[in-house]
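hey
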């Protein structure tokens, strides 16, 4: 089966992806945990909430000041609060139709939120079954970028996995 796949795609890309899967096989859990820490931080699930009281007689007051959440959402509101308007002397109705069909304001807001939260964001551009151009922001916690081995480190592909199923173990 591997020989058939390598014939159908660029062999360099195939071997780069195969190498990435082998290298990341042991590191995927650590990769997921790092992104999960950022997710928890933004959503107010701080480590202090899991701390057990040392003395039962003392109060167990835990106050979380969620500055990361405030910073991300204030910046997000500042950058995307007023929708971008597009105008041109040329006919751009077809472009506007694609943007409106994909709800560009919501997608751009989600793209920026993920970039602010995780430091990187991914958007998939595709053609749907009806032949319409679509774009969708993907969850950054489910993406692993694959770069070539040149000095420029050009992105050649991404591996998408389901983070929730990757963390499950059987006993």
């Amino acid at each position: 089966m591997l020989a058939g796949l390598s014939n159908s795609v660029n062999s360099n890309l195939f071997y780069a992806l195969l190498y990435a899967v082998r290298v990341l096989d042991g590191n995927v859990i650590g990769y997921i945990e790092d992104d999960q820490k950022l997710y928890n931080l933004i959503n107010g699930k701080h480590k202090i909430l899991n701390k057990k009281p040392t003395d039962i007689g003392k109060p167990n007051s835990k106050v979380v000041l969620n500055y990361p959440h405030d910073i991300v959402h204030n910046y997000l509101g500042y950058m995307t609060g007023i929708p971008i308007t597009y105008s041109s002397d040329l006919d751009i109705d077809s472009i506007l139709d694609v943007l409106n069909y994909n709800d560009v304001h919501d997608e751009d807001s989600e793209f920026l939120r993920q970039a602010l939260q995780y430091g990187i964001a991914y958007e998939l551009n595709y053609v749907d079954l009806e032949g319409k151009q679509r774009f969708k922001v993907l969850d950054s916690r489910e993406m692993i970028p694959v770069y070539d081995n040149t000095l420029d480190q050009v992105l050649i592909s991404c591996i998408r996995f389901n983070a929730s199923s990757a963390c499950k173990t059987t006993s």
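Residues 1-9, 166-171 have pLDDT under 50 and may be disordered. The longest strand covers residues 122-127.
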